[in-house]
Write a structure and sequence with these properties.
Layout: H1 7-18, E1 23-26, H2 28-34, E2 42-46, H3 50-56, E3 60-61, E4 69-72, E5 82-87, E6 89-92, E7 102-105, H4 109-114, E8 123-128, E9 131-136, H5 140-146, E10 148-149, H6 155-161, H7 164-175, E11 181-182, H8 184-192, H9 202-213, H10 218-228, H11 236-239, H12 254-267, H13 272-280, H14 285-288, H15 301-315, H16 320-331, H17 344-354, H18 359-372, H19 381-394, H20 407-414, H21 420-435, H22 442-453, H23 457-486
Parallel strand pairs: 2-5, 10-11
Antiparallel strand pairs: 1-2, 1-8, 3-4, 4-5, 6-7, 8-9
């Protein structure tokens, strides 16, 4: 068979074989290679012991109890700089449902492959003298072609050994590409053993959940978590909205609305913060619902939702910086805006609360919310107009504060006391700088202040009025350019 094994990996294989050891490319990189996907990393397995691996490749490091030695390769490709080499091994008992109590070195590749999680990850490539052969003991290639995730051996045993494998099965089903499915018996075993997830650390759960959320099929991942029962051990608060109807503004129940919002955010390639906020933005609705049917209300669900989101993200051990950003987007997702009803002062207040750097992400959450409600358009005219106003209020105002000289400089240079003359001189200087920004220089402005100080009051008033007109024209021109950018009138 043909397989494009990089030279860095071949170097490791050849180095081990030259010393009389067996060596195989194994695991996810083989799966990705056969699927025409670029592997994120490369793994090699061998019958050499850790100290023997280290002696063959002195440029290495090792920091785990599983015998893995990371060989440092000189490569321009970051996925090939660290190649993990692990001895064949078998594992005994999993008291904590995650890590084996005892790791023993095995003698054959067959023993090593038998302890792996899924058939598509239990494939090994042997490359000798340019000839590549496949070792496939569990029909992994067949499952790979059919896009089926199936455990190696009995699913119950694999999940009892390592409960995180249940979550990994769901994660793989949405990250490997469209149309992947979990084999029926494997999926049933997840449902039957869902309680085992309680024994897995929140940090590990967060890692798998994050990979799901980052995938194009993120919404499908959350739905499978619900179907299999795992969601109640991860974000049970989402389930509070399952089959809970909304009001006349929504087509879907609270849970389905949240899933559809996430789906839109994922399909639009919005970032992780927006995706999580889209999923959690209405998580406060079930606890704030009053009444029933088309006239039910959810007053304060944005505030309650932000509090719940903060608890969820904290429980899952998300970094504080991420949790704060996502919580902020949940808290302010309900901002009100109509073109003829909300003025610039309200927009300034929102920008002050959210931060101008977060406004684009807040708008993306709003777009996802709109589509998830069953609306046909994600970005109507009023959202474009809102973007225009946000940029307008965020721009630095055109004022004398932009100058490299101030009133104190004018009084000092001209030896005068406070009065209207100072403001007129500053207005004139601002008009000069607006025409030629290069003149906003302390030395130039000091000379110009001296020159203007010799003019009469009438001359200064006339020049200040001309400068004001120049400022007004500049503000109008800037505003028109911003309007054109967002196609608003």
């Amino acid at each position: 068979m043909k397989a494009d094994i990089p030279k860095e990996v071949k170097f490791v294989l050849d180095g081990l074989k030259a010393k009389g050891f067996q060596a195989y490319v194994v695991g996810g990189c083989v799966r990705d290679l056969l699927s025409k996907r670029k592997p994120a990393d490369w793994d090699v397995t061998t019958d050499a012991a850790p100290e023997q691996i280290a002696s063959i490749f002195p440029d290495n490091f090792s920091d785990n109890k599983f015998g893995t030695v990371t060989v440092i390769a000189k490569s321009d490709d970051p996925t090939l700089r660290d190649i993990e080499v692990t001895p064949f091994r078998t594992e005994q008992n999993y008291t904590d449902r995650r890590h084996p109590d005892e790791v023993k070195w095995a003698k054959t590749i067959e023993e090593d492959l038998s302890r792996r999680d899924f058939t598509v990850n239990a494939l090994a490539l042997d490359e000798t003298d340019g000839e590549v052969s496949m070792i496939d003991l569990f029909d992994g290639q067949k499952d790979l072609k059919a896009k089926i995730l199936r455990t190696v051996g009995k699913a119950e045993e694999r999940f009892n050994e390592d409960a995180l494998r249940m979550l990994r099965a769901i994660r793989f089903s949405v990250t490997l590409g469209k149309d992947w499915e979990i084999e029926a018996k494997t999926k049933k075993a997840i449902s039957d053993n869902d309680y085992l997830l309680k024994e897995i650390s929140q940090e590990r759960i967060k890692e798998e959940l994050s990979k799901m959320i980052a995938s194009d099929e993120a919404a499908q991942g959350i739905e499978i978590l619900r179907e299999t029962g795992l969601l109640k051990y991860i974000i049970p608060e989402l389930l509070e909205g399952y089959k809970v109807g909304q009001n006349k503004h929504h087509v879907y129940d609270i849970y389905e609305h949240s899933i559809r919002c996430l789906d839109f955010a994922a399909k639009k390639k919005f970032n992780f913060h927006v995706r999580m906020a889209a999923l959690l933005h209405d998580i406060g609705k079930p606890r704030t619902k009053r009444g029933d049917g088309i006239d039910s209300t959810f007053y304060g669900h944005d505030i309650v939702g932000a509090r719940i989101a903060k608890q969820v993200l904290g429980r899952l051990k998300f970094p504080n910086k991420d949790a704060e950003k996502i919580t902020l987007l949940v808290r302010y997702h309900l901002f009100y805006y109509n073109v003829d009803e909300v003025g610039e002062s309200s927009i300034r207040r929102l920008v002050r609360n959210v931060g101008v750097e977060n406004m684009e992400e807040l708008l993306q959450v709003r777009m996802a919310d709109r589509i998830g409600s069953g609306c046909p358009k994600a970005e109507p005219y009023k959202l474009r107009h809102f973007k225009y106003l946000v940029e307008k209020v965020a721009q630095d105002p055109i004022s004398a504060k932009m100058l490299e000289a101030d009133g104190q400089d004018v009084m000092r240079i001209l030896a005068i006391k406070p009065g209207p003359k100072i403001g007129r001189i500053l207005d004139i200087l601002l008009g000069i700088v607006l025409i030629d920004p290069a003149k906003n220089d302390k030395g130039f402005l000091a000379d110009k202040i001296k020159e203007l100080g010799r003019l009469s009051e009438a001359e200064l008033m006339e020049m200040a009025q001309d400068a004001k007109e120049e400022r007004d024209q500049t503000e109008t021109k800037r505003d028109e350019m911003t309007k054109q950018k967002y196609w608003v009138t």
